[in-house]
Amino acid sequence: MRVVAAGLLAALLGFPAAAEELAESKVEASSERKKLDADGCVEIALRESGILGEARGKVTEWEGRLAEVQSVFFPKLVGITYLAPLYRVTGDALSQDVVRDYASWGPYYHLKAVLAQPIYTFGRAAAGEKAASERLEVERARLAQARNVLALEVRRFYLLHLYAKSFKPALDSAKRTLDEAETKAKEMYAEGSGKVTNVDLMKLRYGSNELEKYRIQADIGAELALAALKHTMGLPQNAELDLLDETLPDPPSEKLPPLAELIQAAWKDRPEVAQLRHGAAAAMSFEEAERLSSMPVAFVAGQLEVSWTPMWPDLPNPFHWDRYNDITPGLAVGMQFDVDLAKSRAKAQAAHGMVEQVAGLHKFASTGIPMEVRKAHDDAVQAEKLLKLSEESSVAGRKWMIFAGSAYVAGTGEARDLLEGLAAYLQAKKGYYDNLQALHLARATIAYATGGTGLREEAAASPR
Amino acid sequence: MIRRILFFATLVPHLAIAKHPAVERSEGFIASLLKVKPDDGKLSAADKAANEKVFTQLDGYFDFDRLTAEPISPRADKFTPAEKAEFQKKFRELIRLVAYPDSGGFFRRAKYTLADPKEEGEVVTVQLDAKVVKDDLETKVDLHWKKMGDVLKLVDVSFDGDSLVKDYTNQFVRIIDKEGAKGLIAKVDKRRAELDAPKAK
Lengths: 464, 201
Fold this sequence. Notes:
The complex is a heterodimer. By secondary structure, chain A is an alpha+beta fold. Chain A has one domain (about 1-20, about 35-70, about 125-295, about 340-460): Up-down Bundle (Outer membrane efflux proteins (OEP)), CATH 1.20.1600.10. Chain A contains eleven helices and four strands, in the order ααααββααααββααα. Chain A has a four-stranded antiparallel sheet, with no helix packed on it. In chain A, α3 packs across α5 (about 125-190) and α9 (about 340-410) packs antiparallel against α10 (about 415-450). The longest helix of chain A has about 70 residues, at about 340-410. The radius of gyration of chain A is 40 Å and the shape is elongated. The two termini of chain A are about 50 Å apart. Chain B has a single domain, classed as Nuclear Transport Factor 2, Chain: A (Roll), CATH 3.10.450.710. Chain B is about 55% helix and about 20% strand. Chain B has helices spanning about 1-15, 20-35, 45-60, 65-70, 80-110, 165-195, and strands at about 110-115, 120, 125-130, 135-150, 150-160, 160-165. In chain B, strands 1, 2, 3, 4, 5 and 6 form a six-stranded antiparallel sheet that branches. At the A-B interface, α2, α5 and α9 of A face α5, β4 and α6 of B.
């Protein structure tokens, strides 16, 4: 039993005694593949994730819709042209003997075209264009939001994976110690020395099983979190992913900015705020466009109608309608209208509903966003404080083990104190990693809540 | 002039790498601990002889008189001179048997750094920041050295700032108050008997 046999220094330090493990603590094997930290994972996710592909597609869709609305101001050419066979006719409009010769056929060509340029829509097209361009900005802000959500998810799984890995060495070490204590206790029980009772044995068994449960959870948790990380990064499950950190990184050294500063940053940079701003403008412009939907469109247009065939005589008299041999040009200024005031009012009313929806969302966000920032901030403050206490508890648990060990090896203490110290130490260690993970996650959430991905270059340019 | 420059040029590297005696002593102490072969019950006669040699070397690092007398000093009047000598001898042997092998094991597993020493009166303290990656354990060990004649000897060890000698003092005083000096010696004997029992294979 290593704990029982531990020497003054080693046992006091709480370490199970020796196996040659130095090699393990040496510098990790070099690898050609680049090891990724959390930022590296986020960068890959921002490049590869399907979620962002969808959001980018929405932006493209609305760029197309805006171009469609803007096309109103471009000239339109409509027309028809064809070439057809025609039998021969001789005579004219005034002769009695018009002859239709169905045995003789020739070509007939016809063209009718109108080129129109809208010149004024009485505000209707401008409102539509503004609505579409503001809606496009909404989609761009949604893309930015999707990036921020994705970055936070990546960091969440990255931290979860490291959390499970961080706790494993302490669990493994404690499990080894307890198992060895149990082996030794069983021997002593079998000897009938009276030093160990069945209750003592069961306490050790219970403790060992509880530790094993944690170990299983940590093993599966680490693998599952890694799988989720790959998925979130847009990588296949069989992709090789080398992470830079083996355990949760140390607490961030940068001081947490004041809450007011963070809330101010959120109002400035948060994509949801941009969505609301552009959404409100889009909804109002759309209402305006619907209200003006019965307004006419003023235009200037040119027309050309050409009919030609060698099979019919050309009638030079303009009072005769010469449908097969004629050229009719034309230029006009006009208006096109389709007035339905009741329908326009109804459509404007429906559009106003959108304005109200956006106003409602704005009101919700005006308290919701500061609340979200505050929660992330307070979570970080709480985690920092709890982390400090957990660290102190961890040191206290360690000293508990050390001095219980020193008493045991001198013959003046009980092994039970040492095992209780081990339990306390493990609990404190778990608390430490719980709070360290919470702190990193809260910092990542602050980056999200203030409208960023938390990437280094962003962090350098903002208070996050 | 050139000679003077050459003199300083040769002196400077030595000045730069000169270590405090307490740091050198700490390093020597750790190096000796690392030579101890862990007793798993299978040590050969040659291993045991080698260990005994290292043990003698290690004895030179400890101020055993102080380490064994200090913890019982508040109740020194409860000991007869013979009991005191018996206790000190037995406690010293216990420290040798337990601390030497397993401390070596610890230093083989740990990555550690030694800080610059701090002097307080006659005592020089060297702090050792140790981490055992495999067990996720980190601790600060203070080695307290005091000059005895020409050499520095270990008079106490602190873990995360708490003195081991102080802890032993409190433990022993409690036992002496309850069971007397004989009770304390009996406990040390009992522990020694456990250590001497054949080790499970």
